[in-house]
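User: Last request for today: this protein with zinc ion, please.
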Amino acid sequence: MAIYTCLDMIRDCRENKPEGWRYLVTRYVPVMRYLLGQYYGARSGDPKLLERVLMKLRDPGSALFAAPGPGTEREFVADLRQHFLAAVESDQASGRPEIPLDLEVMTAALEPLTATERQMLWLQGMTYTHAAAAKLMNLEPSTVQKLRERSDELLRQKMDQWKPGLVASNGLALGAEAALAGGKDCLPAKAFLDTIDGRITWSRKQDYESHLAQCWHCVDRFSRIREGDFALRETKALSPEECAPWFELLGVPEERKEKPIWRKVFAR
Ligand SMILES: [Zn+2]
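Assistant: Here's the final one, the structure of the complex with zinc ion:
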């Protein structure tokens, strides 16, 4: 029997078939828990939050499955993250940063930063500590820390009002701005997946890096795909017992046991 994959799930959820929603619960509720802990640790005391968010994503008006699906699981998780964060924000919006920072100022101030350095910094806006970002990127925490300190100093030189950690406090707004900032030369997801998997030549790497050094949209997408790759490795699927209350919440019937073959044949 063919293995049911994330891509089958995307197709089935678009057609509102129970198989799709069952797979979403089994494999991606753990990913959503990971995201909740990463981005909204302070709200983790609200046991119903994840339920409300999942209901929003299940809603027929939800954008999660509105567009034709991504081509790989890691891209799906990078997209899911966007819809998940938007749903949590619509439940209760996060406070605005005291000192705003936008991409225009970032671009001007951080011009000397390389593609890799931009990701180390961008992950700070995605709430990753020095150590956590280092883990996602296979680097030393001290390397990430030094780069972030240097970035703070570069921003300070360009801004009238400043304090350390502006990328972190503006992460949500910067992410929203970057998501809309793509252009026709932007890199395909395959570029990021191949880089993570070490399947690229030196010259392709050079091309990607020169684009990343001038495109926050791609830095953001790459960072989200790195996060998706990590979240999938760090989480495991729910057991049937763990799934049951979620199926009930979403109104998805549990999988029926296979009927004996003669009943299938004579079923109509
Ligand atoms: Zn780009």
